[in-house]
Amino acid sequence: MPDVHLIDHPLVQHKLTLMRRKDASTNSFRRLVGEISMLMAYEVLRDMPTQEIDVETPLEHTTGHVIDGKKLVFVSILRAGTGILDGMLEVVPGARVGHVGLYRDPKTLVAVEYYFKMPGDLDERDVVVVDPMLATGHSAIAAVDRLKECRPKSIKFVCLLTCPEGIAAMRAAHPDVPIYTAAIDRCLDEHGYILPGLGDAGDRIFGTK
Ligand code: URA
């Protein structure tokens, strides 16, 4: 599939499988979201620009490469994106953070925006949008639609789980945005949940059900 990156590293798959278990506690689910997100960051940020700097080791002078975290913006789709955001910030603590607040209308499943706050100068920054579940694609598409108005340098989309319907919708609306995921599940149910999935990611991260 064009520009869909399935991150099948054994550590990522291991953590995802533990998260799927219905008896995983809120504590363990939240910890696993953080850990899997740190691991996924490796793949998502593989092509991040670096700059060469001088370094004095205890023995001699050399050069090395560092990233400029400030050039990177993690955009969390509220509320479930927060889980991934926390993990990604562990590995790139200098990154900037944006938030998009969207809720799913339970009848139409359409995404309605209630909050949008981004760092300035997005045209100089690479954006990584995070949301655990790419299901109908409504939230992801609405978030990227809105972000594109700010003309960021680039946009990537990261989720833990998706399904053919979510990928198709996102591909149709935003073919230029690569998708990174730990799994592509079978399908959506009639309520817009991914099957077999892991349930409601927000409720499981925050223990609200
Ligand atoms: N959002 C979730 O939290 N879970 C799904 O399965 C689909 C959308």
* Low-pLDDT regions: none
- Which topology does CATH recognise? Rossmann fold
The number of helical segments is: 6
Order of helices and strands: EHHEEEHEEEEHEEHEEEEH
Oligomer: single chain
Short structural summary:
It is an enzyme of class 2 (transferase). The chain is α/β, with parallel strands linked by helices and 209 residues long.
Keywords:
209 residues; alpha/beta; Rossmann fold; seven-stranded mixed β-sheet; three-stranded parallel β-sheet; 6 helices; 14 strands; globular; binds uracil
Structure description:
The protein has one domain: Rossmann fold, CATH 3.40.50.2020. 33% of the residues lie in helices and 30% in strands. It has 6 helices and 14 strands. The chain has helices at 10-20, 26-44, 81-91, 138-148, 164-173, 201-206, and strands at 4-6, 50-56, 61-67, 72-78, 96-104, 111-117, 126-130, 133-134, 154-158, 161-162, 179-181, 183-184, 187-188, 194-195. The strands form 4 sheets. A 7-stranded mixed β-sheet has the order 1-11-9-7-4-5-6. A 3-stranded parallel β-sheet has the order 8-10-12. It has a two-stranded antiparallel sheet with strand order 2-3. Strand 4 (72-78), helix 3 (81-91) and strand 5 (96-104) form a beta-alpha-beta unit. Helix 1 (10-20) runs antiparallel to helix 2 (26-44) and helix 2 (26-44) packs across helix 3 (81-91). The termini are far apart. Bound molecules: uracil. Uracil (URA) binds at residues 80, 133, 135, 192-194, 197, 200-202. 5-phospho-alpha-D-ribose 1-diphosphate binds at residues 79, 104, 131-139, 200. Its EC number is 2.4.2.9.
